Amino acid sequence: MNSSTIIEDILELRKTGLGTIAFFYFDFKDTLKQAAQYALFSVLNQLAAQSDAYSSILSDLYSSHDSGSKQPSEVALKECLNKMLAFQEQGPIFIVFDGLDECPDSTGTPSPREKVLNLVQWFVRSRHPHVHVCVTSRPEVDIEAVIQPLASQTVSLHDEGGQMEDIKNYIHFFINSDKCARKWREEDKELIIDTLSQRADGM
Question: Cα(113)–Cα(35) distance, rounded to whole angstroms?
């Protein structure tokens, strides 16, 4: 099961009025999608779009910052989000952060990844019983060190045979769909498929 499957299942709950969801995909190719503050903005906007009560809370933040002419601080954003999370009448809230390992951990102090990990810690430690946080990532040491103590459940797909088979099938499909690659010798195709599958590192 990947994050897309999780999100699809929760969206079905939302259709029946049994849940609210916000999700954020981190992306190593897009610096905005590596930033904790951008993730905060995204979650706030998604929740506000699903509830009049949440929308009202976000409107108050907008008004208090001169109708958007002033940039709210991270503290102000968290205070706003905390008000939404505390509003239990809306039912369960599901927050999904996908691909946390795509945030770089090598630039700045704290690094973009550290800021995102701090955000995840903040969500979990806010201790709202109806708020459920799901994080997906490759098993990198710094991420595991922070996430493991917070997690009530963990699922590892990294070394699962099914995961590796899915990756191999995807590469096989891609190579056989590509006009240039279709001209290659079969033994070259197999070599590329096997090499990429082994080096995919679960991705």
Answer: 8
3-state secondary structure 80-103: HHHHHHHCHHHCCEEEEEECHHHC
Which two structure tokens, joined as six digits, stand for 87? Answer: 């509003």
Which fold, 3-150? Rossmann fold (3.40.50)
pTM: 0.73
Which residues make beta-bridge pairs with 22? 95
Task: Note whether 105 and 111 are within 8 A (CB).
Answer: yes
The answer to whether residue 16 scores a pLDDT higher than 80 is no
Count the helices and strands in the chain (H runs, E runs).
Answer: 8, 3
Q: Extract the tokens encoding 113.
A: 């990844």
**Tokens 């945030």, residue?**
103
Bridge partners of 93?
Answer: 20, 131
Closest C-alpha among 160, 30, 178 to residue 102 = 30
Q: Determine the 3-state secondary structure of 137 from DSSP.
A: coil
What is the SS3 assignment for 202?
A: coil
> What's the pLDDT at 195?
82
Domain ranges of the chain: 3-150, 161-199
Q: Give which of 60, 36, 35 is closest to 48, Cα–Cα.
A: 60
Average pLDDT of the segment spanning 132-142: 88
